Each structure stands twice: as structure tokens, then as C-alpha cells.
Structure prediction request, 644 residues.
Amino acid sequence: MDKKILEIKNLKTYFFTDNGIVKAVDGVDIHVNEGETLGIVGESGSGKSVTSLSIMGLLNDTSGKVVDGKIEFQGRNLVDLKEEDMRKIRGNDIAMIFQEPMTSLNPVLRIGKQISEAIRLHLKYDKARAKEHTIEMLKLVGIPRAENIYSEFPFQLSGGMRQRVMIAMAMACNPKLLIADEPTTALDVTIQAQILDLMKKLKKDVGTAIMFVTHDLGVVAEMCDRVVVMYAGRVVERGDVYQIFENPKHPYTKGLLKSVPVLRQKVERLASIPGNVPSPKNMPKGCKFAPRCKNVFDKCWEEEPPFYNVEENHSSKCWLCE
Amino acid sequence: MAKPLLEVKNLKKYFPVKKGILNKKEKFVRAVDNVSFEIYNGETLGLVGESGCGKSTTGRMLLKLIEPTDGQIIFQGKDISKMTDDEIRPLRKDIQMIFQDPYASLNPRMTVGEIIAEPLIVHNMYKDSEEMKKRIHELLGMVGLSSYHSVRYPHEFSGGQRQRIGIARALAAKPKLIIADEPVSALDVSIQSQVLNLMQDLQRDLDLTYLFIAHDLSVVEHISDRVGVMYLGKIVEITDKDTLYDNPLHPYTQALLSAVPIPNPRIKKKRIILEGNIPSPLNPPRGCAFHTRCKHAKDICKKIAPEFKEVEDRHFTACHLY
Prediction:
């Protein structure tokens, strides 16, 4: 039996704006097993990034708030933790890599200082040992001239190198869970290949569980063991990577898979999902995908479907699976 | 064979970089360095490459939004590269552009109708305002929007809809050639396929010719008839789409294609992982620009830049291997 390292139950994260409440995440259940890579797929506005920020407790500076639900990590509910206790977990047990490596590194601090800060804080290493460990981490993520890079600034590095620094920083305290939010989206394909390769190697060597948030289905197919598909603040389908790609059940997952052009597939015309993601202000009453769904029927407009198991470990939030 | 609609010969763009106040000696970023290609009537030429390879600069020079340093741009038999602004203006009717960012390329203080009317007014195409209004409504219909949208402002639209407005504006003056610079890369996948399908429909119905600039190899394969691959300001390979994707000759094209993640978890590709980063165009390597990252690099590659030549029937590449 797989051991769950993180379990999110009925998470609701709402943003309280001047124009009303935006229900960015509305009743999400997700779990991550030890040592696995879980992919969270969805388009902009699906709530995938807000989910990861909720786990990290990084909503304090926004109008967002977790209004309901639990985030259980190693037997503790992260939602209830005080900022002080959360700080001990953040960067230590759970680390995060962001999409934009330039904006998530401090531009006026030297690379070495930024990484060793976390090491000294969490691992309680002294200065010399922290430096040694930092350089070791930089080497681990494939940064050449690690000793020199230690005292350089982020702007002196290329995008790919900055993302490596981010990964070195995230991995420095041996986290049990790594949340990677679109870590390769801002990178060129050949650099993306390098970073994905590095993440696979780290996962194999260190055994960290990874929650991989992305919109790129190619990256998911390559990296993940299990997949969660999100739409309009909800999970709509979950299963292992083969189930999702080979036997998708939710019309949204099906549509998404068909609308990506695939190398050498030679389709004349791409399938597309009509319409747009509904705005949080006028969410449909029943199934949130109903206005764009080609299989829609009366019940879909009336009532939101629950999850139905379609095969082992594979479930879909759709009336068709009833 | 038919005459090309547009012919580009040895096009160059060197951006000067001044260093210091007293240092008179200028350095140059060779953004585009000796690029030649043709575009035939009714086809789509795809131009792929990673960031900084010069693909956007090339596209902008064709419209003379950037003044070329050297080389010829022959459009319908006329060399436009040396023309003054006044001479080029009537020709801009025939060459239009679609931009990447649908948020930045539409004036937020103009209504959609005003945005689309602008090219019609500039080119003095309609004397009668009622007729112009009819044309605007017709254009909105062509891109899948409705007439009542013409009185709204860009911020009221989603990303996909804004890109449709950008396309309507580009179509307004009835152009022959459309330069699309990353038209779908800012869009979600389900919206991306809508816009790609729209562009294909418009091409068929209006007999358009496209230069499609993008970094996504799957998207470029889907929409193009021929594809050119750029690296560090040069085209390294150009041929028809099937030949390029089935039988890439240049080691860079091979690496680029192998780096694309495929949305199928059963496919475990053997990747060619390129070492290092793209060299700076300020100080490009001598000889073949790719030799620093090429596993086939020989002595000659470090000294002499390979000639761009026809290796197979209509399959051009610049590599010493052939």
C-alpha cells in the first residue's frame, strides 16, 4: 500500500476582492504518495497554482484565504499551523520551485547567500559547512564552476541556470515533498529537456515526492506517475498516467488531449473545446464544464456530479460515468 | 516553378551596442546574420528556433518595423528593403502582422470596432462610414465574434478572443501575406487549437500566405507546409515539413526535435540532451555557430562556417557533415 505523504481534503481557497468572492479552489481532494510524481494539469484559472500556494501557506499577502478543508502533511493539518510553525516546514520539509526563475530569486543577493540562508536556518549548519553544502548542491544540479557561481548574482546567469539554482535551493534541505509550479514553462525546449532530465535524476537518487503543476501534457506524460486534472477550481478526473492518457473519461480531459498537436501525428484539423473557461463571477450552477461539453444533458445543468470510480484508482467527476 | 511571393536574400540585422562613454568602438549583436528564404503564394512557412535566435527580428524586418542592416526583401518582384516609410506604407496593406501577446497588442482605450477600423482608415479604403461599419462586422464574423462586440473594449475579452480581434485587424486591409509571431503561445491549449483552426480556415477561404513564427515544434508542424530552423541568427535547415520532421539533417534540428515531450506515457524517447546554453550573439563562436554544443563537431567546424546548401532535393542545410 502506498503511503500518503500529503493529503488535501475538501480544500476551499477563496479570494475576497472588492468585486465579490472568487472561489479559486472549491472543494479539492488530492493526495501525494511517498516517492511518486503527481501531475496537476489544468488551464489558466483552473486553480492549480492556488492549490500549491495554499499548501505552502503563501496566501498571506493576498486577499486569498483557505476557508475550509484540510491539508494533512505528516499527521499535521497545515491549515491550522501558525506562521511560525509553517516557517519550519516551508523550505525544509516542503519546498517549492516557481515558474519564473528571475522573479523568484532575490536580484540583490549573491546566489550562495540565498541558498545557504535556508541551510543555516533549517539544518543549523555553521557558515563554513553551509557553504560547503551549498556548493555541493550547485554541483548536484549540474552547475559548472559552482565555486564561482556561489558569489555571483542571479542576473549573471541564463534562464536555465537560474532554474537550476532554484532547484538546488529547493533540494538543499532534503525536502520530503517538492512542489514544482510550471518549472519549465519559461524555458526553451532544449533547456527544458535538461531540467526535466535533472529532476528525474534527483527523484531517482533522492526519492523526493514531487507535485508537478503544469499545463503541458507532454511534460506530464514524461514525468508523472499519477495525474489530477483540474477545471474551474475543481478536480474533474484523476488516475494513473496511463489511465488518463489512454482511457480518459471526463469530456474535458478528452478534449484537452485531442486539442494538442502532437509531433508526427499528422492530423488535418485539431479538435478544440468551444468557448472559454467560465469566469468566477458567473459559474454555471451544475457541472462547471457543461457550457463547453459536447455530451451535455439536462442533469448536467441542474446538479454538479460527484466522483465516480471508473476503474481502480481512476475516477471522474461526470454524470456520464454514473 | 511559380515565382515566390516574398524572397529574402542575405538579410542581416546587426544591433549596435556601445560600451562605455569614451569607448568609440562599437560592438554588434548579430541578431539576424545572412538569412535567405522564399515564401510562395498560399503556403505557410514555419520559422522555429529558441529565444534569441532571431526569428522575431526576421519577421519584423519583413514589415520594416525594424530596418535591416543589409540584404534584400523582394515582395512581389519589388525590393522593399531600401524603401522609405512613405514608399512602404501602401505596401503594408499587403503584409500584415499578428502579434504574440493579445494583451499588449491592442490599445486598451479603443473599442474593438475602432481597433479594426484603423487599418481601413490609414489605407483610406472606405469613404462611406456605413460601408466601413459593414466591413468591420463582416470581419468580426469571420473570426468568430459577433457584431455587437465592436463597441466593447479589449479588457472585456479573454485571451483567445483578443487574439481573434488581432486577427480581424490583420485581415482588415485584405493582405496577401500575414506574419504571425508566436500567435498562440500565450494561449491555453484548448484555446490554442481554436485559433490554429481559425487561421487554417481563413487561409483556405481568403487565399492567404503565412509566415508562422513559433518556438513550439508541434504547433509549427501542424500548421506549416515548409519549415525553417534558426539558430543564433542563421537558418540552419529548411525544407518541406515532412522531410524535416522525418529526416532532420542538422544536428541542432535533431536535438530540438528529440527534446519535445510527447503526450504519450508509453513513448520513452531517447533524448539528445544538448550541453550548455545558446552562446551570446554578441560574441558568436567562430566557424559553425553550433559547434560548441554539437556532438559531431570536428576541427573544420571550429574554423569555417559551413555553407548553406541544397543537400537533398529542396532540402537545405548548413552543416559540414553533408
In short: Residues 6-94+175-317 of chain B form a domain with the Rossmann fold fold (CATH 3.40.50.300). The CA atoms of residues 125 and 312 of chain B lie 46 Å apart. Chain B has one domain: 6-94+175-317.
